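task queued by scheduler; priority normal; single chain, no ligands, no partner chains; default sampling; output format set to C-alpha cells
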Amino acid sequence: MPTYRAKAPLRLGLAGGGTDLSTYSAAFGGAIMNATINLYAYASITPTDDGRIVIESIDQGIEAEFPSAMHLEPAGKMTLIQAVYNRVVKDLVGQPLSFRIATWVDAPPGSGLGSSSTLVVAILGSFVEWLKLPLGEYDIAQLAWRIERVDLAQDGGKQDQYAAVFGGFNFMEFKDDVNVIVNPLRIKSEYVSELEFNILLYYTLISRYSSDIIKDQEENVSGVQNSHLQAMHELKRQAYALKETLLKGELNKIGPMLNLGWEAKKATTSKVSNSQLDAIYETALQNGSTGGKLSGAGGGGFFMFYCPGNTRYKVIQALHTKFGGEFRRFQFTMAGLASWESRTP
C-alpha cells in the first residue's frame, strides 16, 4: 500500500508581521517580507479499507482513532488534522475516507515560525497527493487559511500559509482576505550565504499563544487613528524597505532595520515583549548584534539577531551563560510545499 507524503517549510518573519491581519489589511493593505528555512512540517497518509481514521502526532506523542465519517468534530490537539479532513471531504471528495495519518514538525508549538499553519499546508499537501486534487499553489494557501481562520475561528494572519506553499524569499501584499499577491524575490546566492552566516536563531524556550497577542493587536488597530495603528503603518514601511535592502545586498542595514521593526512591533500591543525578553534583546545588542526581533507575533519563541562579522559567537556565549535557551543552525530554502508517493515498506 503506498503512502502519500508532504513537507512544507517553516518561515522567518523578517518585516511587516501583523499587517496581514484582516482588520488591518482590509482597511490599509498589508505587506510582509519573509523567508523559509530548512525546518519543516511533515504529513504522511496511508489509505486503509477498515472504515477507521487513525491520527498520530508523533512529535506531540498523541494518537487518536475515529470511525470514518463525513465530519469529525474538531477537539483537543487533533483539531488541525480534523478540520483539514472535514474541508477535503465536504468541498472536494464528497464521501468519507479511511486512512492513517502521521505528522511531525521540526519546531515546537508557539515557536513563532508559523508551525501550525505550515502543518495545515503539509496535511493538505498529503491529501492533494493522495486524491490528485486539482489545487494550485494559491488554492492550497487560501484553503489552509480558511481552515484555520474561518472553520476553526483561530486568530491570525495570512502570511504563514502562503510562505509554506511558495517557499523562498517572498514579498507579500495583502489587499483583503482573498486578494493576496506573492512576489518571489531573486536574492543573489552570496547575499543568502551572508545572511545565513550573520543571522543567529535563538530559541527562548518560552512558548506562547499567538492568538492572545493577535487579538490584542486587532483590537488596538481597529477604529480611530492611534499610536498602535501608526506602529502597524511603520511595520508595513519596514517590509518595503527590507525588500529593497535585500535586493541591493545592503546587508549592513539589516540589523538596524530589524531593530526598528522590533520597536514598532512592541508598540502594537504590550503583550509582544516582557522584562525577560527585553533583557535577552539588550544582552544580544551589548555583545555585538546590531538588531533583531522575535519571529512571529511575539511573546516568546525564536529571536533572530543580526550579528555581523564574527559577533555571533560572542552573542551565543553571552545568551547561553545568562539565559540558557537553544541555538538553531539553519539554511534558507527556496522550495515550498512538496509532496510525493512512497512505496517504501
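post-processing summary
- The radius of gyration is 20 Å.
- The mean pLDDT is 91.
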